[in-house]
Every structure is written in structure tokens, then in C-alpha cells.
Specification:
CATH architecture of chain A: Orthogonal Bundle
GO molecular function, one term (chain A): transmembrane transporter activity
Order of helices and strands of chain A: HHHHHHHH
Number of strands of chain A: 0
Keywords (chain A): Cell inner membrane, Cell membrane, Membrane, Transmembrane, Transmembrane helix, Transport
Shape of chain A: flat
Number of domains of chain C: 1
CATH topology of chain C: MetI-like fold
Largest interface: C-E, 37 and 50 residues
Order of helices and strands of chain C: HHHHHHHHHH
Structural class of chain C: mainly alpha
Oligomer: heteropentamer
Family (chain A): Belongs to the binding-protein-dependent transport system permease family. HisMQ subfamily.
Shape of chain C: flat
Distance between the termini of chain C: 74 Å
CATH architecture of chain C: Orthogonal Bundle
Largest sheet of chain A: none
Subcellular location (chain A): Cell inner membrane; Cell membrane
Structural class of chain A: mainly alpha
CATH superfamily of chain C: MetI-like
Distance between the termini of chain A: 69 Å
CATH superfamily of chain A: MetI-like
Bound molecules: adenosine-5'-triphosphate, magnesium ion
Membrane topology (chain A): Multi-pass membrane protein
Strand content of chain A: under 5%
Number of domains of chain A: 1
Radius of gyration of chain A: 21 Å
Number of helices of chain A: 8
Largest sheet of chain C: none
Chains: A mainly alpha (231), B alpha/beta (256), C mainly alpha (243), D alpha/beta (248)
Number of strands of chain C: 0
């Protein structure tokens, strides 16, 4: 029978796992948000030269399991990178970076769809007002259009945040010591997998449940001033 | 009102402007000259091309043929040229199109800031000056949604004025407003007109047209059917189309 | 590193075998999803706390936990307890296929509960009231009016869930099932060529997913045939006379 | 000079990722000693077992310090060092069974064998037994043993030392026993005392191979190997090791 | 119109009906008797409880206290009782509430089918009879979304009539309709009223009320303020509230 000392050691390791999971979550989310937003803006433009590769990209990313994309990037990634960029055998496709890359690439496609939809729902007059005032395009997007786009896309983005949180667990299958890996190893070593796995699952549930009030706060902030006060 | 027969600087001139939407011809060769300081009111039935016409002036729509000259600049559709034209021309929309997520004051200073005009303080002073002029300075720190429709439209006017454009375009600025709020906007527009601003307004507010328009323009089916000083326009319309139009429209503008 | 066409072709039979496993598993779970999500959604919407709360906890737990963790818990976790191994449902858990079906189904049903609930809630209240006013008993109103309409409102969300779910099955190799991803992985292990088998598998997933999407598009068209053009109804919500 | 070494991390007593995150076990300790002797600065990286060989082939590692059987198929792509340890594969069966370990003997006995996905032995056993037994593929030995004790499978085919450490020599191993002859899945024409598991480098990297071999031979000769081995495993793993142990 | 002073069968009777929504009292003790064959029009300002009142009659809302008797059945809120009451009472809603996914004919036969009344053929014949009666039989195989608003409302009436209820309730049946379509629905309702159906209509169509209502009811703030025959109701309203209400409402109902 394992002693409680063993347990506390493993639980401490699980904290390390949590930190890896959270780092993955943040990186993946930020990168998918950045790429997805750029793609979403490009998708709104008319140029077919951009549309076709974008459509293909989105179709692949939304049609193939994330796990497979992770495997392809992790196991095949450095080969592909070497072939593409002509460097010599020295790309380090670590589990962390390939995990972030895979999750971000997949979710960028979903963010792109969201942002694209939100842009289309933005009143046309907002674009025209920017044009008429002669605002430079980049700043018009940055200061006027995107803030409104994100407000519209917020519920969808919260959803993607939670999906990414759960998808980070996939990196345990390429050997990154995230929360799930630690729980699995600890479970194997102590022959008591149940405890560790349940603790891990509670972490995920707590994280996604906590997201909701935080998202509501954010929404209130973004909506600041945009609902009439008094009648 | 000015005597428009004496030679004057021409601020906006259109010659044979044609515009298609796909196969549909929205403007069928429109010509119009607007002198500096003149106030022009355009009216006509829905779909007659009024919006299209004024949107061609600041190139929100590109025209297919004909010449548009704005304050000496011949519009040619290149980006630099378009930018130059838009600096000369301010525009106010039917739907206000204020930026909902920033305050009234920021709405007014944003373009100045991004175009690197003046310091923050100078810009804010200028914005406050124009907000004052539309009588809404005390609302400067509210968000647009916290204002009534009429107040919002006045902010939109102030926002356009901040760029100090010599020419202003108005596209039905009062038709999204509740009756009580129409007058406060018309009042502001009247002040502007009397202040010597060159203005082209699409509007059905006949009271406004009578009081301040130098000339009224009647459009139908993409063409200008009649141009006349306000009195002649309303009291002795020449074309039968305009007569029919006025008959239908006049009773419903009782409030102005 | 490049795509090895001859290896891809040679791998096709094995990959098809894996694909069959993926499809079997999906069909099983999707059926379970249909059967269980409606009662779950009803429980979740029930005014009775004793029904609504357990349903809510069910949804929160099984939606919040990653499928991977869920499968580990079901396969390795609960097998640790002797009383589970001695109970009568052990045969179900002893079998990896059974475990995978249960694990995926719990997650899928949790999502579906919200899909069904959302669709039921989007059926205009007036339509259910009109049925009641006609004297139709509540149970039949649910069965013949609200459910068929909810199906129409929810078909988009259901499609997304089905596609997401099928892609999610790629995880089942962790409980020793040789699905499409596992087979591709096995070929990679034998040949040390990761790209060829996995890209081939990716293409197969892509085709399946898009067939499903096509199927749903057809179903959607058929279900919504009543929105066929002809004169559109012009209704006005504004009150006619009194302001 | 920096060398990047790959290791599994989840295979005690050969490779253990301990509670505080440090890597210990026979393989890392041997590897560190080798590095010291060849004067290289080594970076040990832990990675999923399945990813080790592809990563080596793609140049992410210079050497894998996980014990691997140098089979024909692996030799096509990799070069191997001298044997680092001998850990032949063995069957684990229920204590009260009397199975003959042939396809005929097992057919109808309802046997399910646990194997490690991507393992050389797995492929071998499948050709040996065909469809007379059922197979189940696991990601790591821990899961295999968890499932054996849970009763989902009733036979293992895994390295004998691993099975001993993780199962037979532990309290829960009382219901199980080893069976059959130890099996070596490497080159079959090797004499018994040269068989064993070795460390792979990329094909053609003979310079590194020679240096590592030199270090390993020296460590065996001066009994450093035995000292390290005794920290983790009580029985000798190689003939030279046995000789050192006998000297004491 | 009938002389309502002679004793008659009472189809619907309400006595001191009270209904709360949470703390808010929507009906403050309403009493009303509706004779067989009588047509009652209820009007009153928004939020006065008109909808609540008629929805209590067929128990779409349960009342808190007071008695509701429908064709001899005292409403008690039990499922079986509620079903019995609803079979006696048909209802037509402002928003039509047709089943969008089945054809017009199926809309009419659905309830019959689910209540196991008659054979398929008999039910369809009956449905066609009532569709004929609302002059829409030729649309029987279309889906609701393919019809105009007025046509949809007539289908809703036919659907309710198929259950052959002795009493019909209408909750503002024309107020979601475009002006052109209102008359076709009013026409059908008039036919029904003249045909001797017991009807309770919430409507602001004063022309309709004048032509067919036996009595008009004015509600405000959850109470009945005035009940009177149509002429008296419009031409000599007693309560000042009703007078104020009629002043506001009459000019805008010019179309009926
Ligand atoms: N983007 C567009 N694409 C196609 N057709 C357009 C577009 N914009 C306007 N039109 C058409 O061009 C014609 C003129 O439109 P315009 O908006 O200029 O009319 P208007 O006189 O401003 O009418 P209103 O009083 O309704 O605003 C209309 O028939 C309209 O349908
Ligand atoms: N489900 C409900 N929950 C809470 N309050 C309600 C509900 N339904 C109605 N009310 C309130 O009860 C009052 C009466 O509502 P009712 O719908 O009967 O009015 P009405 O006379 O039909 O008005 P309208 O002419 O707008 O249809 C209103 O103040 C309304 O806000
Ligand atoms: Mg217009
Ligand atoms: Mg009502």
C-alpha cells in the first residue's frame, strides 16, 4: 500500500502538470485568437487568391481530428519543417510546441469562422463611418471594428477557450508531462489510478466552471456604456 | 440665401455622372454644380438614386463615368486622391453610425488622433467646441447608447465637423428619428447652413428645405428632374412628377 | 521526409479496418445519444429539483472532463475497485469497446442534453400553447409538436456535435481499441514513417466528416422544405392601432 | 560538444521519472557515466516511447539510451551499440494454468495477451500465435499490468526484468508466474552471450557509436557498470557484469 | 343581435376571478357571463389583463381564486378537467401559432388525429369543410410559411373550428396583420358571429365591434370598468377611463 507521503509527492507533481496545462491553454488560445482574427478579416475581403487557401485550411482543420493533427505535427513536424525551410536536422519540435501548434491551428479555424460571422453582423455603417472619417485601415480595425467584433464573438470565444482547455490533455499522448500524464503515471505507480484521475477531472471542471463568471465580467466590461441607462 | 447668379467658387461639381449596380443603372448621367456656401436639398422617391449620388461624391461608391470635382480635385478613384477628397467632405448618415464602444468625446477626437492632427489637448478642445456648437457638450463623456436618437445624430454631426471639412453631406439625417427629436437636429443643420457651410442634404423635411435651402433638387429614376430655388420648387413645380411627389409627401411633414 | 504513395496504398486495407471500428463505435454512441439525451434534457428542464439537479451535475461533470481523462477513469480507474470487478456489469467494463462506448456516450449525452434543451427552448411557446388550446394532452403535444419542431431548430447544433464527436473518437486507442488513428499509429511504429499513414488517415477522416456534413445538409433541406419560397408571409409584430 | 539523449522515463527500474521530476534509473545513470567518459555535455530528454526512434531519425536526438532489441528491421535504419543489458522477453501466465505455449495449446483457452504498441515483440508474437489468442495493445507497461490485475487480460509477453520488478516480485504478483523459454527477438544467429538490448544511433553515425562502445566496454571492465546496476537491480545483466559480481 | 334580457343558457361564466403573476395582480376579481351564441368584444389598454382573462378561461393560465364555469363544467385545474374544458373552447392567437412543419390540412387534422377522433378520411373532409368556410380550401396542401398573414390567420381559425368547439376565444387576431389583410380575417369572424357561435374577442377593431358585438367590455388595470351593448359603449361611454381610451383609439382605426 502506498503511504500518504507518496501521494503528496505525486500531488505536488500534479501541480507542475497543472502549470504546464495552463501554459498550453494560454499560448494556444492567444495564438489561435491572433491567427483566427487575421484569417477572419482576410475571409471578409473578396480576393479569391486568399479565399481558396483559407477555405482549404478551414476545411482540413475542421474535418480532421485534432489528435491526428497533433501526431502529424509532432512525429512528422520537424521533417516537414526541415524539408520546407531547408534547415539541417535541428528543429526541435517539442511536445509543448507541437501541442500548442496543433491546438492553435485547429482552433484558429474555428475562431476564423466566428470572427468572420461577427464581422458580417457588424452594421455596414460602422465601416462606412470609418471610411468617411478617413481613418487609416489598420487603426480602424484595431480601435473601432475589432473591439465590436470581439464583443459579438465573445460567447463563441468562451466556448473555444473551454474546448482548448480540454484539448490540451491530448499532449499527454505525445509525452508532455501535463496534468493527465502525471495523473496517469502516478496512477500506474501507485496502482490507484482512480484518485489521481478524478482529481485531474475536477481540475478541468473547476477551470471551465470558473470561466463562466469571468466571461460574464468580461462581457459586462465590453458592454460598458452600450446599454441605455434610464428610459 | 444668396443670389446664385453672380459668379462664385464652385465647391462640388458633377457632370454626366453614371453609376451601375450590376445591370441596374442607379444614376443615368447626373449633372449638378454646388457653389461655396450653398445649401442644396435633394428629394425624390425611394430608390431614385439620392443616396447613390451623394455617396459618389465622397467615393463611398465609385462612379462608372462622368466627372466629379470636389474643391478643385477631380475624383479619379486612386487611393491618394480618394483620401484627399474625403478630407474635404464630411458625411452624416441616416443611422448615425457612431462608434458604440467609445465615449462621445472619443468619437469626435478619434480621427484627429489617428491622422496625427494636433495634440490630445488641442483635439479635445476642438471636439468640445463642436459639441458645444451642436449643444451637447455636457454629454461628452457618455457613451452613444446612453443618448437619445436626436442627441446621437448631433454627435455624428459634431464628429464630422471636427475634421473641419469645407463640404458636408447629409443622407436623410432625420428619418431614423422619433418626431420629437427631429427638430433639434434640423436646428443644428440650419445653424450650419446659415454659418456658410457648403451642404448637400438628402431630406424630406420640407420645412427645413423652405427655410434654408438655396436650391432644391428633385430626383427620380436616377435622373435629376428639376432644380429650383426652394419657393419655386414647392409653390410652382414644373415637372408633373415633382407635383405628384409633393402632393403625396407634404401632408406627412406637418411637424416641421 | 515525404509522402510515400506505395506505403499509403499498402496500408489502405488496415486503415479501412480501423475506419470500420471508428464508424461502428460512432454509430453505437450516436444511437445512445439519441435515446438518452431527450430524457436527460427533460430532467434538466424539469421544475422538480430532484430531477433537475442530478441532470445538471451530470452535464457539468461529463462536459467538463476531457474525454481522454474520462476514458482513463472508466478503463483503468474504476477497474481498480474489486467490487466493480465482481459486479454484474463488469463484462461491459472489461471490454474495451464497452468502455469506449460508455465513455464517449457519457460525454456525448452531456453535450446532447444541452443541444436538445436549446432546441426545445427555441420552439415558440405559442405553438405549444396552440396545441394545448386544441385539447391535445401535454404528452402528445411534446411528442408530436415540440419534438419535431425542436429537431428542425436543433439540426445545425446536432450536426456540429456529431462532427465534433466523430473527430473525438480518435482518442479511443488509449483504451486499446484499434480505431483508424490507432492503426495509423501502428503503421507509423512499424515503418517509422509518421507522415504517410497519418495523412492517409486524415484524408479518410476528412471524407467521412464531409459525407456526414453533406448528409446533414440534405436532411436539413428535407426537414425545412416547408420554408420553400412561394409568397413569403409578411407578418408585422408591431401593434396595429394602439401605440 | 553537446549530445542530446532520448529516454522513456516511465519504465522502472531502467528509467524512472521521480516525484520531484528528476530522471533516475539504470539507463540514465549509465548514460551519464558514458558522457563523462567521452567528454560530452549530455542533455537527457524524456519522450513518449513511440516518438523516440522517429525523433532520432529526424535528428532530434543523437543517441537513445533506452534498451532496445536490435532486430533486423531496426538495423535497416539504425546502428546499435554493444549490448547494454540482457533482458529477454518472457511470458507471464496465471499461477494455476498449465498452458502449452503453442497456437494449438492455447486455442480455445480464451487467452488474451497484453502487448506494448509499437514494440518489436508484439509483431513477433502475433506471427507466432496467429489468431489462436486475442491481443490487446497498450501504451505503456504500467497500463498492461493494471489490466492484467483487473482481469481483462490473462497473459503478458514482456521483458522479464520489467515483469519481475513491476509484478512478480510485488505482493500483487502472487497469482502469476513466468512461463516458457525466455525469447530473444534480435538477431537469431547471435550466440547467447552476445544477445542483449542495445542503444541505437542514426545509421552511419559510427564515430559516436565507437566512442560510446569504448566507454561502455571500459565501464564493464572496471566494474563501474556493476556498481551502477546494483543500485537498481540485484541480478547481473551481462556476462562481464556477472564476472564483476562474482569477483566480490 | 339578440335581446339579452330574456333568460338564456350561459356558456361561460366568471365570478370574482383573481390572478397573480408573482406579486403582480393581473386580474383583480373579474366577473362576466357570456350567453350561448353571444359575441363579446373586450378592449382596454395594453397590460390591462385582457389576454390573461381569456387565457384563464381555457386554462392556459391557472387562476388563483374565483369560479370559472364553461358549459356547465366548473374549471378546477385537474388534468382531466382541463382537457374537457379545452375541448369546449377553441382559441385563435395574435401570432397564429400554426405548426410550421406540416401542411395547412395537416394543421387542421392533427388534433383530431391525436385525440383519436374519426377516420383519416372523415377528418380530412371535416378540415376541408372548415377551410372552405374560411375561404382558403385551395391552399390546403401548402405549408403555413407559403401563405400571407391573413391567410395564415384564417387557417388558424379553421384549425380551431375543426374541433367544433361551442365557444371560441380570439386574442387580438388581427393585430399582427398588415392593413390589407385585416379585413379578410374580420370577415370570417363576422360570419362566425352571425352563425351563432359563442365568441369572446379581444380586439381593437371598433368597426367589427360595432357591427357584430352583442356587448363590449372595457378592462383596465385588471378590472372590468364597463360592460355595455356596442352602441352605448361607443356613443355614450359612462366611465371617464373608457372615454379617454376611445378618444385615443378611434381615429387610428379608420380602415375597418
Ligand atoms: N449596393 C447596391 N447593390 C445593388 N443595388 C443597389 C445598391 N445600392 C443601391 N442600389 C439600388 O440603386 C437604386 C438607388 O438606390 P439609392 O439608395 O441611391 O436610392 P435612394 O434614393 O437613396 O432611396 P431611399 O430613399 O430609399 O434611401 C435602388 O434601386 C437600389 O435598389
Ligand atoms: N407570464 C407572465 N409573468 C408575469 N407577468 C405577466 C405575465 N403575463 C402577463 N403579465 C403581466 O400581466 C399584465 C396583464 O397582461 P396581459 O397580457 O393580460 O395584458 P393585455 O391586456 O393582454 O395587454 P396587451 O394589449 O399588451 O396584450 C401585464 O402587466 C403583464 O406584464
Ligand atoms: Mg437613401
Ligand atoms: Mg394581450
Amino acid at each position: 500500500m502506498p503511504t500518504s507521503v507518496d501521494y503528496s509527492g505525486y500531488f505536488q507533481q500534479m501541480l507542475g502538470g497543472v502549470s504546464i496545462t495552463v501554459q498550453m491553454l494560454l499560448w494556444s488560445f492567444v495564438i489561435s485568437l491572433a491567427i483566427g482574427t487575421v484569417f477572419g478579416i482576410l475571409r471578409t475581403g473578396a480576393s479569391g487568391v486568399v479565399q481558396i487557401p483559407l477555405t482549404i485550411y478551414i476545411s482540413i482543420m475542421t474535418g480532421v481530428p485534432s489528435l491526428l493533427i497533433l501526431f502529424i505535427i509532432y512525429y512528422g513536424g520537424s521533417g516537414v519543417l526541415t524539408a520546407l525551410l531547408g534547415y539541417d536536422r535541428s528543429f526541435d519540435v517539442s511536445p509543448f510546441s507541437s501541442g500548442v501548434a496543433a491546438i492553435a491551428m485547429v482552433n484558429a479555424a474555428y475562431v476564423c469562422d466566428l470572427v468572420h460571422g461577427a464581422i458580417r453582423n457588424l452594421p455596414k455603417g460602422q465601416f462606412e463611418a470609418c471610411t468617411v472619417l478617413g481613418l487609416p485601415r489598420f487603426h480602424a480595425w484595431r480601435l473601432i471594428l475589432l473591439p465590436q467584433v470581439f464583443r459579438l464573438a465573445l460567447p463563441g470565444l468562451v466556448n473555444i477557450w473551454i474546448i482548448i482547455l480540454k484539448e490540451t490533455s491530448l499532449v499527454s499522448l505525445v509525452g508532455l508531462s501535463d496534468l493527465v500524464t502525471v495523473a496517469k503515471t502516478a496512477g500506474g505507480a501507485t496502482s490507484e489510478p482512480f484518485v489521481f484521475l478524478i482529481v485531474a477531472s475536477f481540475f478541468y471542471i473547476a477551470m471551465s466552471t470558473l470561466t463562466v463568471p469571468l466571461a460574464n465580467r468580461l462581457e459586462r466590461r465590453l458592454n460598458r456604456g452600450q446599454t441605455p441607462v434610464g428610459a | 440665401m444668396r443670389d446664385i447668379s453672380t459668379p462664385q467658387t464652385i465647391d462640388v461639381s458633377l457632370r454626366d455622372v453614371v453609376k451601375h449596380y450590376g445591370p441596374f443603372q442607379a444614376l443615368k448621367g447626373v449633372s449638378l454644380e454646388v457653389a461655396k456656401g450653398e445649401t442644396i436639398v435633394i428629394c425624390g422617391p425611394s430608390g431614385s438614386g439620392k443616396s447613390t449620388l451623394i455617396r459618389c461624391i465622397n467615393q463611398l461608391e465609385t462612379h462608372d463615368s462622368g466627372d466629379i470635382v470636389v474643391r478643385g480635385i477631380t475624383v479619379d478613384g486612386t487611393p491618394a486622391n480618394t483620401r484627399d477628397v474625403r478630407i474635404e467632405v464630411g458625411m452624416v448618415f441616416q443611422q448615425f453610425n457612431l462608434f458604440p464602444h467609445i465615449t462621445v468625446l472619443q468619437n469626435c477626437t478619434l480621427a484627429l488622433r489617428l491622422l496625427n492632427k494636433g495634440t490630445k489637448r488641442l483635439n479635445e478642445e476642438k471636439a468640445m467646441y463642436y459639441l458645444e456648437r451642436v449643444r451637447i457638450a455636457e454629454q461628452a463623456h457618455k457613451y452613444p447608447a446612453q443618448l437619445s436618437g436626436g442627441q446621437q445624430q448631433r454627435v455624428a454631426i459634431a464628429r464630422a465637423l471636427c475634421m473641419e471639412p469645407p463640404v458636408m453631406l447629409f443622407d436623410e439625417p432625420t428619418s431614423a428619428l422619433d418626431p420629437e427629436m427631429i427638430n433639434e437636429v434640423l436646428q443644428v443643420m440650419e445653424d450650419l447652413a446659415r454659418g456658410g457651410m457648403t451642404m448637400i442634404c438628402v431630406t424630406h423635411e420640407m420645412g427645413f428645405a423652405r427655410r434654408v435651402a438655396d436650391r432644391c433638387v428633385f430626383m427620380a429614376d436616377g435622373e435629376i428632374h428639376e432644380i429650383a430655388p426652394a419657393e419655386a420648387f414647392f409653390d410652382a413645380p414644373e415637372s408633373p412628377r415633382l407635383r405628384g411627389f409633393l402632393d403625396r409627401i407634404l401632408p406627412s411633414t406637418a411637424h416641421s | 521526409m515525404h509522402f510515400d504513395l506505395s506505403l499509403a496504398i499498402a496500408s489502405l486495407p488496415a486503415l479501412f479496418h480501423g475506419l470500420m471500428m471508428t464508424i461502428c463505435l460512432s454509430i453505437f454512441v450516436l444511437l445512445l445519444g439519441i435515446v438518452f439525451s431527450v430524457p436527460m434534457a427533460l430532467a434538466r428542464m424539469s421544475k422538480r429539483r430532484s430531477l433537475a439537479w442530478p441532470a445538471l451535475v451530470f452535464v457539468i461533470f461529463f462536459r467538463g472532463t476531457p474525454v481522454l481523462v474520462l476514458l482513463y477513469i472508466l478503463y483503468f480507474g474504476i477497474a481498480q475497485f474489486a467490487w466493480v470487478r465482481e459486479s454484474f456489469f463488469w463484462p461491459l467494463f472489461a471490454d474495451p469497446f464497452g468502455c469506449a462506448v460508455i465513455g464517449l456516450a457519457l460525454n456525448h449525452v452531456a453535450y446532447m442534453t444541452d443541444v436538445v434543451r436549446g432546441s426545445l427552448l427555441s420552439v415558440p411557446r405559442g405553438i405549444a400553447e396552440a396545441s394545448l388550446a386544441l385539447g391535445i394532452p401535454e404528452r402528445k403535444v411534446f411528442l408530436w409538436v415540440r419534438l419535431p419542431l425542436a429537431l428542425r431548430y436543433g439540426i445545425r447544433a446536432y450536426q456540429n456535435e456529431v462532427v465534433g464527436f466523430i473527430k473525438g473518437t480518435a482518442i479511443v486507442s488509449v483504451v486499446t481499441i484499434n480505431d483508424l488513428t490507432a492503426v495509423a499509429n501502428g503503421i507509423f511504429q512499424e515503418t517509422y514513417d509518421p507522415l504517410t499513414p497519418m495523412i492517409t488517415a486524415a484524408v479518410m477522416y476528412w471524407i467521412v466528416v464531409n459525407l456526414v456534413r453533406l448528409g446533414f445538409a440534405g436532411l436539413d433541406r428535407w426537414l425545412n422544405r416547408h420554408h420553400a419560397p412561394e409568397p413569403a408571409s409578411r407578418t408585422r409584430t408591431r401593434k396595429a392601432a394602439v401605440a | 560538444e553537446t549530445l542530446r539523449l532520448g529516454n522513456e522515463g516511465t519504465n522502472p527500474p531502467f528509467s524512472i521519472m521521480s516525484g520531484d521530476g528528476t530522471l533516475s534509473g539504470l539507463e540514465p545513470d549509465l548514460a551519464r557515466e558514458v558522457c563523462k567518459r567521452i567528454g560530452a555535455d549530455c542533455k537527457l530528454v524524456v519522450m513518449d516511447f513511440r516518438a523516440l526512434v522517429p525523433s532520432l531519425l529526424e535528428g532530434k536526438f543523437d543517441l537513445l539510451v533506452g534498451n532496445m532489441t536490435p532486430s533486423e528491421k531496426r538495423r535497416e535504419k539504425l546502428d546499435f551499440t554493444r549490448p547494454v543489458l540482457s533482458n529477454p522477453v518472457s511470458f507471464v501466465v496465471p499461477k494455476d494454468s498449465d498452458w502449452t505455449l503453442t497456437p494449438e495449446g492455447l486455442r480455445g483457452k480464451n487467452v488474451t495477451v497484453g502487448l506494448q504498441r509499437g514494440d518489436m515483440n508484439a509483431a513477433y508474437l502475433k506471427t507466432l500465435f496467429g489468431d489462436s489468442v486475442k491481443y490487446r495493445d497498450y501504451d505503456n507497461p504500467d497500463q498492461t499490468i493494471l489490466d492484467l490485475t483487473a482481469g481483462r487480460i490473462n497473459m503478458l509477453f514482456m521483458p522479464k526484468l520489467t515483469a519481475a520488478v513491476k509484478l512478480i516480485d510485488t505482493p500483487k504478483g502472487s497469482d502469476w508466474k513466468f512461463a516458457g523459454e525466455p525469447y530473444y527477438s534480435g538477431q537469431e544467429d547471435l550466440p547467447a552471450d552476445q544477445r542483449g538490448n542495445a542503444w541505437p544511433v542514426r545509421k552511419g553515425d559510427t564515430a559516436l557509436l565507437d566512442r560510446v562502445n569504448g566507454a561502455l566496454n571500459a565501464m564493464l571492465a572496471d566494474c563501474t557498470y556493476t556498481k551502477i546496476r546494483e543500485k537498481y537491480i540485484s541480478t547481473p545483466l551481462l556476462p562481464e557484469d556477472a564476472a564483476c559480481a562474482a569477483k566480490k
